[in-house]
Amino acid sequence: MKFGDIITGTITRFDKKGRGVFDAPLQNGNTRPFLVPFTTIGDEVEASFLKRQEGCFVGKLVRVITPGPSRRSAINHQPSDGQEALKADRQKPEADLHPGTLWAHINYDDQIAFKRVMINRAMEEAGHNERVKEVIPC
Question: What is 6-69+89-99's CATH number?
Fold first, then answer.
């Protein structure tokens, strides 16, 4: 795979950093995890290859072809200074709309559920027997 190559896939899981992951096919028939920030489980996406990192491919979201069930609908921005409202296009990567908010595009209830799974996975990998049964939203 070369820098800038476009690949499509459906996000099946999150990595430890909260990036969406799908399995990219290799020429030898195997697969390799392809990490795409600003995606959620069920999203069918186009991503641009950026680099290899720790046995994975890392890409940039180009567009969401088909949104997953946890993806929020388009967001309407209402600037307070009277400017014309900006409408977020569903095809525009969330990274451009909300820099620094990795999961702004995911429904809040689903964010809570995903975070509980990630916390419990981290506890298990660290050898702890404790598990979080419920995450209480703010």
Answer: 2.40.50.140
